[in-house]
Amino acid sequence: MDYYNSFLDQYLTSWYPTTTINPTSTISISSIDPTNTAGLALTFLNLQHQIQTETNSISLYYLSRNARGAAATYTILRIQQILQTAAATATQQLPQITEELVNATLNLKQLEWDSNLYAMNLSVPFNLLFGILFILIMFYQIGICAWFKDFYFSICMVCGCLLEFIGYIARTVAHYSYSDPNLYLCQIICLTIAPAFIMMSIYYLLAKLVVIHGLQYSILSPIQLSYIFIIFDVLSLVIQAIGGAIAAINLRMLRNSNVGSYIMLSGIAFQAFSMTVYILFLMDFLIRVFKIPNKSFQLFRFIRFLFGSNEMRQEFEISYNSKFRPIREKQIFNYMPLFIMISVLFVYVRCIYRVIELSQGWRGFLITHEEYVLTLDALMVLLCVLIYVLFHPGLIFNKMNIPLKKKKLKDIEMKNEVRSTPISQPYYSSRLRLPEKSTVSSTISSFDKSTIINSRFDSPSF
Questions:
Q1: What are the transmembrane regions (predicted)?
Q2: 142, 310, 357, 430 - which has most CB atoms within 10 Å?
């Protein structure tokens, strides 16, 4: 045992209990099976070998924690052996023995708390509640997708809700296993990349609005808008996934995970940048749709327009694409620009929070206080997807084909033009009008009959 004491004195940092025990307080004293003594000796030998060869500071930190645990365990075993002897019952030795036993127990409890990867007690009710809500919304999106055949929007939303569900269920389970790195990485990666899928579905809606109102109201074509922002979102998703993978590998190998954290941070920052650009394009589109030519912009009228004023809609209806008028006549469609803006702002707040959170590190103030995670992340994303429970595009478009490519738009316009022609009237009649019978008769009667006869029988001149 003297060899182990010298080893611990050389490599183990000092630890002093921070908890003050008053005479009236009680504490559960740890008890260890004496048969573990042989295993403890082997642990000391392994620690000695690893500490002498290890150079990584993170690995040395974990090894020192193991050494602390071994030292506290050894202290408890030694005191248990002393208490088994008759000499230990001496009154003068009991205070010292009790103090050492309490300190060793507090040391083990502190080590157990230090192994908490979240540095807090995770809330089971709230995390479970968010997990249940996200899975219910996911099933709703699947049902809407099957009914209205709105595949792209619903599939992206389903992926986002599924990742949110996995993340919060992992946090719920982690309450009972807070030192499990698999659960920690599962929840942090899933909750980080989930909003990227949700934003993919929202980006698509701006292109649909451009087609429904008219191509002249957007700087870019609908297909260009879709490609640009979806590519932006995929890039941010890839960056975040790479950062999460690097952080996971480093964490498993007991290495510094700051590189992975910074990559994840840059991915979220890029996502916030793409959302900012999207909001600018959305605002430019809405102003173009609303603005009266040769008149200044009026904020109050614009707000009325966003809140679905029928009077405002009727005023501008004549300038919109007539092919999609049935969609615009739905009262729910009038609120579509407003709920798109609100949903984007919810995710935008969440992204700004995540940028600040990760910039503080894995032991920063925000990430170690769950009330901020639940309100500025979970609640923001939940409110975003709840909007599309009430205002799902399938309920608005109702299976109507809204193509984004110009060629398909022209094909639809030609089909609509053919269908709009009355069946009793030939298609060419709108372009070629034959003279009426009365007009022909009056024209013939105006000519002299002799002129007609002469024109028939006169020989032609060469």
A1: 117-139, 151-170, 182-206, 227-249, 261-287, 332-356, 376-397
A2: 357
Residue spans per domain, the chain:
2-19+29-114, 124-415
Q: Which tops the pLDDT comparison, 8 or 387? A: 387
Amino acid at 208: K
Q: What is the pLDDT of residues 38-77, one digit of tens each?
A: 777 788 788 878 877 777 766 777 777 778 788 888 788 7
30: left (phi over 0), alpha (psi -120 to 50) or beta: beta
Q: What's the rounded Cα separation, in Å, for the pair 181 and 115?
A: 10
| Per-residue buried b or exposed e for 165-190, using 16+ beta carbons within 10 Å of the residue's own CB | bbbbbbbbbbeeebeeeebbbbbbbb
Rounded to 5 degrees, φ, ψ at 247 are -65, -40
What's the DSSP call for residue 458?
S
- CB count in 10 Å sphere of residue 358: 23
**Single-letter amino acid, residue 379:** L
> How many Å apart are CA 37 and CA 74, to the nearest integer?
8
Q: Do residues 114 and 106 make contact, with C-beta atoms less than 8 angstroms apart?
A: no
Averaged pLDDT for residues 260-281 = 91
